[in-house]
Amino acid sequence: MAAGLKTIIALSFVLAIGFLLVILSSALFHSYLTLLVVATYCIAPLPNWICGRCANPDDFMESAGSAVVDFGRFCTGFLVVMGVALPALLAHCGLIQVPAMVMSVIGGLLIYGTIISFSMFFQDEQDF
């Protein structure tokens, strides 16, 4: 039980650092466009979750539910790539500065990694 509590505390600390980096990237450089990364990374796991729930849980129809799960993975991958590419695009256009882009990308990756780690840590085992 103590190992689980330490894991939750460590993941919460990493999540706080990620949010701090993204908020500082917008506040220090006076451009609040980098906050879009937080929204992107918070929305990114949703297609995987929704499509995983919509897939047919029947073992005999595995090929039919696979397309829905693959579509969810595609949408999640698109949102993760967009979370990295959006600050790079904004920096390339001159709307944000390069240090703000770096802080935003690192903070966003920490946020997304923490969300995935939380979901893997609290995933229920399905017994038949």
Order of helices and strands: HHHHH
Q: Please give the radius of gyration in angstroms.
A: 17 Å
Proportion of residues in helical segments: over 70%
- Number of alpha- plus pi-helical segments: 5
Q: Strand-residue fraction?
A: under 5%
Oligomeric form of this entry?
single chain
**Low-confidence blocks of residues:** none
Task: Please count the beta strands (DSSP E, at least 2 residues each).
Answer: 0
Which term fits the overall shape? Answer: flat
Q: Structural class of the helix and strand makeup?
A: mainly alpha
Separation, N- and C-terminal Cα atoms:
26 Å
What is the residue-averaged pLDDT?
84
What kind of sheet is the major sheet?
A: none
Main location: membrane
Subcellular location: Membrane
Organism: Lepraria finkii
Protein name: Vacuolar protein sorting 55
What does this structure look like?
The longest helix is centred in the middle third of the chain and has 32 residues, at about 60-95. The two termini are about 25 Å apart. The mean pLDDT is about 85. The chain is built from five helices and no strands. It has about 130 residues and is mainly alpha-helical. It has helices at about 1-25, 35-45, 45-55, 60-95, 100-120. Helix 1 runs antiparallel to helix 5, helix 2 packs parallel to helix 5 and helix 4 runs antiparallel to helix 5 (about 100-120). InterPro entries: Vps55/LEPROT. This is Vacuolar protein sorting 55. It is a multi-pass membrane protein. It is found in: Membrane. Belongs to the OB-RGRP/VPS55 family.
